[in-house]
Amino acid sequence: MSGERTTMMEFAELARALGAAGGESDRLGIAVEAAVELIPGCLHAGVTINRDGKCHTLASSGALLHVINDLQNELDEGPCHTPGREDEIVVVDDLTTDPRFARWGARVHADHQLATVVSILVFTARGSYGTLSIYGTGPHAFDADDLATAQALAGHLAVALAAGREIEGMGAALQSRTVIGQAEGILMERLDVDSDQALAYLKRISSHTNTKLVQVAADLVRTRRLPEAPDRSAG
Description:
Keywords: Kinase, Transcription, Transcription regulation, Transferase. By secondary structure, the chain is an alpha+beta fold.
């Protein structure tokens, strides 16, 4: 539904859910799910932190967001990669023609058939900032009501995060989830598998080598070298 049709009751329920969530990772996940549910045309959503000039996916509606953020780092451009970003909202209505992120936009459109992105600032801290981003397929995928809904979601998320621990103090659980998601994104791109298959691949490596899952993922993200699964299969 659009922002105009999104009721106060729905946002009240969202606020309660965010407040009752057990930690930052849960709050981030709730916000991302709400974006996809409440904004028509939103196929993918994610929360990204830019720390020291690099994008890191904190929560996403799917592993594709990890791939898109990795591409921002690779090409050194993108709405979540802008150094010292101060713009509250960045709207790219057509990734194929917008000159601000020409290389990144062309790749996202060609590789993933996405044409519109809206990125909204959620928080800023020393050396970092966080954004809520939504993606749609066609150009001009979101109208004014959709933008209002997205901004309201970002606002609720900002309040919920401020009420919990400090952003820079996020716990090990969130960091583990982030690095595992990044590793899944790499495997999806390299092996042409889905997120479930990528996670199964990591779990097999973890079991076979008696190494914690998060360490297997961290090694993959750091080295970009694929570990060999016991059965040499990702499925």
